[in-house]
């Protein structure tokens, strides 16, 4: 490895050139990456709602109602004209309004009052539309402007899953800018305070910035990534990768104290840093990759992006960063400053004194925290990710106030089975939540030959051997009531048709997401623990050390995940699933740094001394890395508009803080108490035994955080 790094440093201009070319290419590819904000698209192909939705799109060529437009102040003739204009828009598949339910050429006073109330509230008219998949915010704004231009129009409100997804996509660039700005500022400040040159944070940001560009650009080969991945992958890559650059900087600084030859100092730093960075990156890599064990495909989407980002950061920091640092050694020397934090001895004494109470508290809280974390309530739909101050959320509240909460589902059943279909329609109409049921029999009559019926209605209701029933219910988009209704409607359909029916709707997809992710939670936990445990087993050649590290970190994860339960908070399921892999992957880096230092010192001194000194010597790198993660994620929580991204930020920040507390207070005491177990379950660990007959093994090379 030393010969390899020596050759890389000699040919550093070539190395830098290769990274620059790759970064430019990837930067050009970033705009070509397609982003998907619809979580239903990530249901596994085996999920019934996913199969049903594919079948409906294939057979009928369109989706169900995904947008509502409410316009106040307009007259009935103008509403009729607006209906015609909306149907002429390129991204509008179909529109339904009052004129499709009653004869608007007759006085409304003489017609069914309940039907009219569903479409006209005395102030304005409601239009339900089917918009093409992936409609942009620009088209939503165009529809708003079209409605606003109608004579007399006072207010226009637009909501629905299409509007939610468009709004989510529109906020990505804004939130991405905020996220990266906050992360950059945090890194500049924290690293400058904890290193000896004002240029160090700039070099680190430049290096990791290249890695982020490489990761984002190569996403183009995956076709499409989720909006969640697009938002969080870069900042997580930045925060987690800081550990590797801190290790390299620390080793370079110490090598400079041993030799005046800057070239040899850098080669020495690269050689000593490589195995530690490799081990840390491997643990984080497999931790992120474990998300791919989820049935819900958002896990694989995020896991691949995050794991790929770790690979990009690993090569950038081990190959590119040393070349940049060496070339800028003159400027670095001119910007040197005294360290702002010179000693952590007092902190080590505090951690040692509080270790026993901390261990008792952690032991007492562990099981209740685990149980509480398993009782947290979740959200699954895109509407829950809308900020209360966003236009689409305000519009949705206005429409719900005027016409009540509702959602529309489509049911496909075998055609020409009129007895079963009429019976199913009757069953659906009797449900207390039903607002309306649209089918061939409700429009015309099952006795009327289709040749005599309206052709436009026939096209929407009959196709591919299926008859379609459209059910509109007075229920929230996502609630226990909605999930119960999914079960009820599926039961009614099975009673008439067995498995030969199809049911499509937002709540139907959310119900399947809920069912899938309830299993995924356990799967991700086990996959990440096994993957990281295997890496730690190989790394430390010990059976007990991986168990000790993972146990301490898992308790911190349980504590973090338990917080929403007593506070009565509802958490987005993606944020909750991601935190398992992210917190475990990030916290294990801190644990590795401490453990490497402790084992090196334990070979030379008694366990109590090794414990205290290890806390003192690892405090700066661990505090530097964790404070970046904590402060950056708190900044995300305070600045972005998406509630889900806010939750991710808070969970990671709080999780990093709890993990660091347990690593400094509890982990040293665990090693001290289990010293004998670690000795007998580890391969040639060579612990110091003082006056006993066994002589201490020769001291191993200093770890990246030791003197």
Automatic annotation (TrEMBL):
Keywords: Cell membrane, Membrane, Transmembrane, Transmembrane helix. GO terms for cellular component: plasma membrane. InterPro entries: MMPL_dom, Mycobact_MmpL. The chain crosses the membrane at residues 12-30, 179-196, 202-221, 276-298, 304-326, 347-371, 529-553, 573-600, 621-640, 652-674. It is found in: Cell membrane. It comes from the Bacteria. Pfam families: MMPL. PROSITE patterns: PROKAR_LIPOPROTEIN (PS51257). Its main location: membrane. It is a multi-pass membrane protein. Residues 43-326, 478-674 form the Membrane transport protein MMPL domain. This is Membrane transport protein MMPL domain-containing protein.
